[in-house]
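Figure S7 source data.
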Amino acid sequence: MAEVDFDQAQAIPAANPAKRVKLTGRAFYESIGSPKMIVAPMVDRSEFAWRFLTRSYLDEQKNKELLAYTPMLHARLFQEQPKFRDAHFQPTKESLTSKEKSQVQPYLDGNPQIDRPLIVQFCANKPDEFLEAAEYVAPYCDAVDLNLGCPQGIAKSGHYGAFLQEDRDTIHKLIRKLRDDLDVPVTAKFRILETKEKTLDYAKMILDAGASIITVHGRERHQKGHKTGVADWQMIRYLRENLPSDTVLFANGNILNASDIEPCLEATGADGVMSAEGNLSDPTIFAKPPEDETSRDYWRDPRNPAVGGYRIDGVFRRYMDIIHRYVLEQDPPQRSPLYLPSDKVPEAGHDTVVGEADTGTAMAEPVTGTKRSNDMIGMNGDTAKQKSSKKQKTKRDKKDMTAVHNPNLKSMQGHLFQLLRPMLSSHTHIRDALARSRAGDIAAFENVLSMVEAAVKQGLDEENAELQAIMPTVKQDADELSSTNGHSHQHQVDEQSSEAARERCKRPFWVCQPHVRPLPDEALKLGAMQLSKKEKEALAQREAADSGVDVQKLKNYRTQEIVTDALKQAGGIAEEEIGLNKSQARVAETLPTDEKDKSHLRHVDNELPKEEALTCG
Ligand SMILES: Cc1cc2nc3c(=O)[nH]c(=O)nc-3n(C[C@H](O)[C@H](O)[C@H](O)COP(=O)(O)O)c2cc1C
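Tokens for the predicted flavin mononucleotide complex:
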């Protein structure tokens, strides 16, 4: 494995050695290295392999500044059901049956060598259940977090997450219980309320209950799905200025890419910045470009070297290697260096056609098809091309079931749909192959990787050919761009629009980049979002109340303000896609929408994993 320095990654220091003195608040925060960068809790997305992938792009020093949260776990199920614990938290290879720290070798979650600092998040509404669940994980993490932000229907019916907002007494008891009785500190993540005063009051209550760190998601409960919109950093600043100065506060929301982190810290005065969606589309979001300017992992825009990003094929490889080495505990396949157009041309007969399986041979030093196929034997012990007998099939099905319960294997497809999003609408053969890749079928995922590598090779070659053809103007462009700080002024866009953000973040398809969704008013105009009956009524009421105003003008005037107001009045009642469904919907968003391609959309949607009971995001 030429390109991943796992030894370096393994050198992440243990955040909290042996048995601990319980520190709280800022002293606790400092004891875990005062992290400034935080991987958000994400159901089915912030599992070990993804956290480790994100950490692996940071050097040793920066690693101390990265804190990660587990996905939200359901406290009642976790304390009640050993199977549920095993399916979601694997600190050792044995079942998590005791609340004492196990003496057996650490495995994945909370492993002091590779997965710290770590905060485990739960949703809960009963203090005793919350404590019981937290006691199981306390020996393997640095703190336990209470989810007060989940806005989904499932949280509403289960009375947890953001739906505890109106039940302050319960929140206070939940946090206080852990503050008093748990070995590690308790923290809380919540959404802002409608006004500064209400939010401040709410935050004070959470701190009074005993939260050592608060994470403030700068969006209200109704802001989800197409209504997500922009997070309010001003509100977070207000909290910073009006809460006790030693409060440890993380800001969450609006981090599209690495260049947003510093501005967020500055604007909010927060101690750290948490990223969720930005981290999913670019797990290198917290990393700096490599110091080695010839690194194959990183693409620099030949027209403007100040613009760049980590290559998707490199990130995908690294992710696969982590799955092999840490989750499956087997050597990853040998891989050739990532392709560069300056590499020598492969001999005739070894080159490949984009779209074929086994295109891992499209490398500078081709790995033969046979070698590759052997290497691709994953945990199922069969290759994509092997004809399986009935007996083999049964055996594989059983192992597939094991995979489905492994949080790291289960999330691979969802992660890859998000990571590869920039290329999936143009490379539909890859999208279809990914859609067919089942949890635990490592050979299938390796095959998708080969297809991605071949597509990236083709993209790089095309870029290179284009550059050769227009060499003199490229130099001129680069000079002009550096004199305008890297911004092209070809056409004017509204700086506040999602189009402006999209333009700022746009990279070639082979580079990690954020997905910028339309703002609520834009989504409405595009027809991607429709107001629910209640929301329409609210809008109509508002129009009627303003009857002195030109109604026609008002009807055409679908500004974000009006829409947001209407949504607020309706209390965010309209249901949205959630958790895995949300990512499925995002996949669907990338797909072509014209009639002839709708069959694809249905196909992919059917192929995606079904939503589980607990995918609350
Ligand atoms: C796929 C997904 C799963 C999520 N799961 C959780 C979760 O388990 N717990 C939680 O507190 N928030 C969850 N969230 C919300 C994020 O932690 C974060 O608050 C939100 O996405 C805003 O941050 P962002 O603008 O960086 O995406 C989830 C978000 C996504 C996209």
